[in-house]
Amino acid sequence: MAILSVEELEKSFGDRQVLRGISFRAEEGDVVSVLGPSGTGKTTMLRCLNALERPDAGRVAIGSVSVDFRHASKKEVRALRRQSTMVFQNFNLFRNHTVLENVMDGLVYGKGMTRAEAEPLAMEELARVHMEQAAHLYPAELSGGMQQRVGIARALAPRPEVILLDEPTSALDPELVGEVLDAIRKAASLGITMIIVTHEMRFAEQISTKVLFMAEGRVVEEGPPQQIFHHPEQEKTRQFLRRMLEREQEG
Ligand SMILES: Nc1ncnc2c1ncn2[C@@H]1O[C@H](COP(=O)(O)OP(=O)(O)OP(=O)(O)O)[C@@H](O)[C@H]1O
Ligand SMILES: [Mg+2]
């Protein structure tokens, strides 16, 4: 049974169509990496899955909630939003809340827990990403890598059906990337389904159970990492991978 199913998702901004009929599925525990050139609609797709953007058409089912966006009520869209959490490129932590409060918020406001119930669970998630010492600090007191580890703890804490990560390491200095990738590996090892937009090709190859290659608002090719990275069938995929590889070698 698919835990996530996306069918014919379409989204335009003004007269610019950004998503042109995106369809794919993820099974429970899948780690799906999404690759593709800049401006292709990867962020827009993740935001649609979390209902931060409303698609013009298409269907998304996550866990027990299924929404047809042509007809969906606000209530149905809200229910869909609660099925997933996001990890953002720029962390998006609440600046006036401590680290601990940032992780507790989703448990208290999203899950209706008391603060007494939420706190030990939040501390457990912070310990998982080695941030328990920083529980009472504010985001501005942390490095980017530490902020993103908090972002991962915050996304994990409510145990959503799916975690959506949008280029979680691309705003970091190179020496801080490893600690965040380790935190993502830990989250994956819990068996939580994840969709990760990333330019970290080697990491994507190691961690993914499935890879999607997107271009111009469509899924051009999808398959297991072995296939997409070593035997891509589409010329567009081959060109993209060649460019990424050259860039990695230059850097
Ligand atoms: N809120 C918005 N209003 C208008 N246009 C938008 C909006 N959000 C995204 N776009 C446009 O949609 C297109 C796809 O953007 P998106 O951010 O989804 O691409 P992306 O694949 O995530 O790119 P990148 O790899 O650079 O992050 C771009 O042309 C972008 O300018
Ligand atoms: Mg993006």
Radius of gyration, taken over Cα atoms and rounded to an integer in Å? 18 Å
Bound molecules: adenosine-5'-triphosphate, magnesium ion
User: What is the oligomeric state here?
Assistant: single chain
Strand content: 25-35%
The geometry reads as globular
Low-confidence stretches: none
Tally of helical runs: 9
Helix content: 25-40%
- Average pLDDT taken over every residue: 96
What's the helix-strand series?
EEEHEEHEHHHEHEHEEHH
User: SS-based structural class?
Assistant: alpha/beta
Largest sheet: 6 strands, mixed
Looking across the biggest beta sheet, what order are the strands in? 6-7-8-3-9-10
Distance between the amino and carboxyl termini: 41 Å
Quick one: how many beta strands?
Answer: 10
Describe this structure in words.
By secondary structure, the protein is of the alpha/beta class. It has a domain at 88-159. 40% of the residues lie in helices and 26% in strands. It contains nine helices and ten strands. It has helices at residues 42-49, 74-81, 99-110, 115-128, 144-156, 174-189, 201-207, 225-230, 235-250, and strands at residues 2-13, 16-27, 31-35, 57-62, 65-68, 84-87, 162-166, 193-197, 210-215, 218-223. The strands form two sheets. A six-stranded mixed beta sheet has the order 6-7-8-3-9-10, with helices on both faces. It has a four-stranded antiparallel beta sheet with strand order 2-1-4-5, with helices on one face. β7 (162-166), α6 and β8 form a beta-alpha-beta unit. α4 (115-128) crosses α5 and α5 packs parallel to α6 (174-189). The longest helix has 16 residues, at 174-189. It starts with a strand and ends with a helix. The mean pLDDT is 96. The structure holds adenosine-5'-triphosphate and magnesium ion. The site of adenosine-5'-triphosphate has 10 residues, from α1. Residues 42-43, 166 line the site of magnesium ion.
